[in-house]
Amino acid sequence: MKIKIFFVALSLCSYIFTFGQNVKQDTTKTIKLDEVIVTANRMPILLKTNPGAISVVTSEGLSIMPKGIGVEEALRLVPGVRIDNQHDGERVHVSIRGQGILTERGLRGIGVMIDGIPLNDPSGFAPDLYDVDWSTVSKIEILRGPSAGLYGGSGAGGVLNITTNNGGIRPIGGELSQSFGSNGFRKSLLQLDGSKNNMDYRISFSRTDGDGYRDHQAYWSNKLYEKINFRPTNKLTITQIISHTDYFQQNPEGLNLTQFDNLLQANPDACPFNEYQKTNRTTFGLVAAYKINEMQDVQLSTYLRNWKYKETSNKAAEYRDYTAPGVSAQYNLHLKTGKVINHFSLGTDVKWQNISMYKLQSSNNLNRVESTDETNIELDTLLANQLISQSSIGAFALYKLEFGKFNLLGSVRYDATNNELTDKMMAADSAKTSKDYTKASARLGASYSFLDAVTVFANWSQGFMPPSTEELANNPVGYSGFNTHLVAATSNCFELGARGFWGDKLYYEVTGFMMNTENDFFRFKQSGRGNQEVFYGNAGSSKRYGIEAMFSYKILKNLSLQLAYTYADYKYTTATIDPVYTDPTYVLTTPPADGQYLPNSPKHQLYTEIVYAINKNFKISLGSEYQSEWAIYTDAKAYSGLLDPTIYQNWQDGFNLFHARIAYLWKIGGLNGECSLFARNFTGEKYMAFTEPDPDGNSYQPGPKREIFGTIKIRF
Predict the structure, then answer these.
(1) What does the pLDDT look like over 343-371, one tens digit per residue?
(2) Domains, the chain
(3) What's the CA gap between 366 and 274, in Å, rounded?
(4) For residues 68 and 81, what is the distance between their CA atoms, to the nearest angstrom?
């Protein structure tokens, strides 16, 4: 059946080619990067004069995604970013300059904004990126490096500022898209959009299914996104957003060395216990901007997010119900005196989150049914029943100076985060545990444009990353309450770089940085804890050096080359470990030692992509993805080869993959669209996609061999 669908799609593309081959207009609009304005700094500034490392992904780069479901596709040409797609679908690890690399899932310390609405909780943790349909995104700004002076704990490593498409220019329009490919992949997208008078709108719905390339790796998602922009006056703009996500993913878990005979299998625990994760989330958001006069304006955003989460393992099923409201406000003042332009801002971010969480013991019944819904067998034994309340408030001030070719941008911020846990299984007098974190942070950057081809910039910034909810809730000294031994990780980073444009032919940015981090996190394991075995601690300090380079060159009018290179030298330097993490009577994992490389951080990463337009209709692209070897473990004994070599081997070989795509752009009457075929890893290389420092040695997550994807888009 899948082969028939594939050939039907090829036939349809051939038909469209026959009747649309005289079209001489490219439907992909070229964006001039030297005119792009970025807002991730919470102040609008031209990309070319931005005083710090930043990358912008435009609709052109997003149009070449093979599946349109993963952030690793969207950010493939962004240096300094490490993304691990854990299970073929949309569950990922994301880190910037190594910050947040040890979280088990999601994004820790990386701010995520979707159309001005933050995704991070009060601790700075973003659980996933399921709310984003990458096929409907128009631009992504990636602010690299610590930005706590702008976003608090949500900006410890950087910021992803995501903007989705607005409505079309006609009263009614839209898009139909159907993708299909290897391992049972299917994605259907329907989008309606338009504009009239002072309003534009867009509503999209997509359904994605996949079997995964490993056993017990199936996933599906439904995404609904509605966005309306109102402009009732020339001074007021209001954006109203509703987002709903329903996502399911089976969890095949990592493999150990004894399972390398079949890299496509799931971990033996995963299938008999039908391990999976299920998310159902709805967000209501409102963003407004009001121009008081030529000198003053205000911005306001507010949201309410409700969601239910379930995760099953071989020991328990965990249920969580979340309620998370938030509000941000910012006042801006613009003053011009001669050639000097000053911009001042004051603002605040306030977030709350309440989590009702309980765990039920998993049954040992071997007659469980593996299913892509919530089929699961649990006992009525209650293992945990608790409430977690979080709140955070951040106050910030920004200043921007423009003086000819010189730009200065600075910010200061103060954050206070409160966490409280109530254990409903304990007596009232001992049921509550609380942990607070406060921090002041700053950021200062300057740039000078000698000419369009050369702008130099320097930036100093601080990071502040409090422990996430999951890290706090896993208590190594008791079955309930918070891990009160955890402290926030802090960092200082200095970067120096240059960027430039040469007409529309060349764009480049090269940044070197040095970052010192104190109280980095690590994972460790305890014995005799039943359902709770893995915990988090502070590992001491680390020093990180790196070079990030991005280069885009139009070799010929119809031939262009882009590449992104990252050099990363990340090492632990001093160990200052709390004794609770090293008690030999029950701690099975040793903390990292001085000189160890941080895990899952290849020293070299390189992605290159060349695009050739055969004519106005046909485009082909070739891509290469390279990563050098990396370290796996934080455990000093595993790192040094002092543990059983049949279970623990510290170094993982890198890989080099090759990808290819061909696309045909067409127009028939009032319809236009695209047909494309994408071959990922077309040489069929066997490789390890990523590893994690699992104390049990189940560290290996293999990647897929050759995959083929096809997409048909119709725009009306």
Answers:
(1) 999 999 999 999 999 999 887 776 667 78
(2) 2-715 (2.40.170.20)
(3) 10
(4) 18
